[in-house]
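I have been asked to look over a protein record a colleague put together. Alongside the sequence sits a line of tokens, each denoting a local backbone shape. I have pasted the whole thing underneath without changing anything:
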Amino acid sequence: MIRRLSLILCVLATVAGDAFSQDQNSQSKTATIVLARWGERADSPAINTYHFAEVFQVRHRWVFPDIGYVDFGHNNYREFFAGGGYTFLDGKRVTAVGELLYTQALGPSTRGDRWLVPWTLLQYRITPKLGGEASYFAYAPLSSTAIVQHVLERSKLEYKIKSHWKIGVGYAGKKAENNTWQNKPFLTTTFITKDGDLEFWLQRLPHNILQVVFRYKLVYLH
């Protein structure tokens, strides 16, 4: 499984391109992108599952700086990351970006674990209304207590039913060292506004747990 996921990463990094090209209306402009996400269990009890925030800038083909934060609904563990990357290909049908991030874990349940995280995003446009994207990254340990992890954060196919609405289906998954692969399929709806995109997931986690995810994306050109 690890060898297969590593091969996927190499293929995406060399063949794919940038998911942010649609946000770059002019190569002379800088795009600042703000992402915010929040997850909660849909069934009772309604337990918060994670918080995520990220800010990065896109300058032509370069992505830098990229900084962010994530926790998993607990105060005893959180991760901070920073890095940058480059757009490898910007095609009509397929684009992608590759980044390298430094990630630091903090909190009483960690021993200050550190990783290098190669991150890849693939975007595909099949028709003017049908398209999608896939995001994969891996945790390469920099400290003795850190473990190897593989994360398919999302792979989705969406259809634009109206100018401001998209619906779709997707799949996510994760494998931590010495654990089995976790399947996390989801349904998604996106509302597109001038003040940003609002995306809603209904996702099934392991052990038949349902999760609702709210995702926000704002693009500012300057």
Summary: The CA atoms of residues 41 and 209 lie 7 Å apart.
